[in-house]
Amino acid sequence: MNDVKYCEGCGIKLQDENVLQEGYTSNLENKLCQRCFRIKNYGEYQVVTKSNQEYIEILKSVGTTKNLVLYIVDLLNIERDLSEIRNYIPNKMILVLNKKDVLPKSIKEAKIIEYFKNLNINFEEIIVISAEKNENIDYLLKQIKYYQTSREVYVVGHTNAGKSTLINKLLRNYSTNTQELTISPLPSTTLNTVRIDINDYLTLIDTPGLVDSSSIINYIDQDMFKKISPKKEIKPRTFQLRKGQSIIIENLARIDYVEGEKNSFTCFMSNDLVIRRISNRKDDLKHLQKRTIEMKYEEDLCINGLGFIKIVNKGVIDLYIDHNVESFTRKSLI
Fold first, then answer.
1. Distances, alpha carbon 93 to alpha carbons 114, 131, 264, in Å
2. Which site in 7, 46, 160, 301 is 20 to 30 Å from 334, CA atoms measured?
């Protein structure tokens, strides 16, 4: 009987019996399942549907250990409630704010850290990094050493937060291990826990990303997904709106300014997105679900998976968006 083997890319159990099931490989001597092989070599992607409950059970199992946890968060798409992770994991935890490289360079790291400290969530440390550009990775490793309770350190976070990119960067920087996690810009690439030996004192355990069903990335095609995913530093676009004017974001969202004094709307979104101002008498995108939102002074309107819009003054807006996509307001990040 063959020993059980797991895919080095996504952690799924390898099998050679059913090409339609997860973990299929034509040869059990292979290190990657067919899905990971095709993502890595051809850029192809095959959707895998798993319920969040399966992922939550994995997080709960992490919570039964005493090990340090790295919670990876995408700075452009911060979850509505960062404290929710504490429902499953009471462990020592470092909040790792990733994708610093896509925010404007003018934004000070200290200001971002202060913002998250004011949320009063229990993190041992808050660190701003760019896994893609190798920024602050040395400091992160130093803090991992300081806080780790054993050799094993878990890596958690939502899909597309950059967990696998960070782990691969740590592997390249500090390890002789040639293993590499499968990276795809699409969600649910890691399907199970994957153990990665970095060096003699550190083994990272990558976990599946929590799938956020309220993110816009679940309701767009692959071409639009590439468009909304920033590849370089965002150039914020500011629109001065009066009552009766609107902003259109591609064919994804419409914002009508319906009440208030002249106001400033600054979009922190991918440079590839076409954003334009129109009169709200036009009917563009009014077939989408309408939400009326009262904005306070200095608040962000966050659209899950798309980015955020900083609105300076108070006012009333109508947001038109797919009914599945979450939107919320928060105190301005920037």
1. 17, 18, 37
2. 160
